Amino acid sequence: MMAALQVTPFDPCCFSNRNSVLPYKSVVSCYRKKRGLGNVNLHYVSRMSHNCWMVFASQGKRLDYMNCKCQQAESAGGVTADIGCMPVHQNLNAPETIIDNVNKVFSKSIEEESWNLLRQSIVYYCGNPVGTIAANDPSSSSILNYDQVFIRDFIPSGIAFLLKGEYDIVRNFILHTLQLQSWEKTMDCHSPGQGLMPASFKVRTIPLEGDDSATEDVLDPDFGESAIGRVAPVDSGLWWIILLRAYGKSSGDLSVQERVDVQTGIRMILKLCLADGFDMFPTLLVTDGSCMIDRRMGIHGHPLEIQALFYSALICAREMLAPEDGSADLIRALNNRLVALSFHIREYYWIDMKKLNEIYRYKTEEYSYDAVNKFNIYPDQIAPWLVEFMPNRGGYLIGNLQPAHMDFRFFSLGNLWSIVSSLATFDQSHAILDLIEAKWPELVADMPFKICYPALEGQEWRIITGSDPKNTPWSYHNGGSWPTLLWQLTVACIKMNRPEIAEKAVKLAERRISEDKWPEYYDTKQARFIGKQAQLFQTWSIAGYLVAKLLLANPNAAKILINEEDSELVNALSCMISANPRRKRGRKGYKQSFIV
Ligand code: GLC
């Protein structure tokens, strides 16, 4: 159990906030006898305690707390009250050390606040912590499904707990979501493939059948069958594998990944991802909205984010899979896919000034094995924004590649996770960070970090998003700025030994994020406004900031998430290229150009 867990006594004034129990389907459940007010599910107590805290806030307590932080800062630095809570608006006459101290105290108080908020978002199942709620804003009138535990949203929460040495919640999360994996899930009368992990789940407390004096907790997953747009969450299982490895590395407890049911869970995810289809590419073929961007945004096909997570999950799974009878085929398939996938992404998704110039001069309609323009890309696709955007130094992996179509948009998570997982080469990884530095005003501006760049506008927006009013230009998934991406940025920067980039981003976030109440995302090209429909007290904004802070303080800990370049893979790749007669007829210097 978590020592610092704060569960306030049940306060009837908050009772009206209690979520009603909705119709459910349950396989995973546990029950307990009612004992007076103790029958209230801890999950709800946690939410209610937060609600109560906000009631206090309206009575001035929250204000006191904020004031208190400022006073602390003042007394530590002896700087006048004009400095307020914003260390960036510094008194320029103050000696540097004083400003440093003020900044440190200020940042420490935000860190403390974020820990409190993170703990208040914990969800309990049968009395045990199993995850964190997506957003915990009691003032919001439209919580939609933000009262659920999202698999992807829990990852930064889980990492924060691991870094703090609080392993139980992560272990419970891993094992309970595993139980959900094998659920029967349908949309109308169709069931998606076995092995799919849910996008989210909710803990419901319901009366126990046949016993009025008892209740039971049930875990109710959503595989996309009630999610907005009914999208299947391809990324959930991939993140689950990545978190499982991080748990083992961080806690030293390998018994979880060695369990038979966990091994079976890994295999089920792999089988689903590695199954043969009609596809010609080694990249994973998915529908629109199968990842963090869980809406129609023109990222169907082979979006970079899914490929980076897929690669990372394959590497992590290979590390954890126990050799057993009958697994040789799976391991072989996995290794082959890793080699082909990394080649494909490094070679065909990469663009920089040099490659752009090649594309600009592409011949089209080539029919041969040695075609240079393999996907028949028409150079006219190079948009004016891209000519402006591409710096002389730097490059990135494009968002998506399909026959006759390159989606040149910069997608942040895919690029950052390609660095973390070593899907990108060493040089490419540095080039991505070079680009981030060069394009700071476009990608970061007032709040890290744009989810993608640039936004879709006009007719393109109408066609691609289906005129989605939430995805208007520079908002939400369409070029909005998401503070949660801070943690992936930090891991990538630490891996490449360039933490100063992440430090700069964290400082920028600290100027507003707490005062703005930890929004889910920001709007406008400069990220100046809190997102129009953004939830406040969004847990992964809080956890993303915390993970960034914790890792910058202890960069070595980032190892639990990083995959170093695998020399066996590089060798296998060069053997594969030289053994393939068709490839040999390809362009000269091919092999050298890949192994950077
Ligand atoms: C939004 C985001 C999704 C996230 C969910 C819960 O739907 O697009 O990525 O998991 O909110 O925060």
Features:
alpha+beta, 4 domains, 4-stranded antiparallel sheet, 12 strands, 10% strand, globular, disordered N terminus, disordered C terminus, binds alpha-D-glucopyranose, hydrolase, EC 3.2.1.26, 6hp_glycosidase-like_sf, 6-hairpin_glycosidase_sf
**Helix count from the secondary structure assignment:** 22
**Distinct small-molecule ligands in the complex:** alpha-D-glucopyranose
Global outline: globular
How much of the residues is beta strand, in percent?
5-15%
Radius of gyration: 25 Å
Given as residue ranges, the uncertain stretches (5+ residues, pLDDT < 50) are 1-27, 35-92, 584-596
Mean pLDDT across residues: 81
| Helical proportion, percent range | 40-55%
The strand count comes to: 12
Distance between the termini: 47 Å
Supply the helix-strand structural class: alpha+beta
How is the main sheet built? Answer: 4 strands, antiparallel
**Lateral strand order in the biggest sheet:** 1-6-5-4
Total domain modules: 4
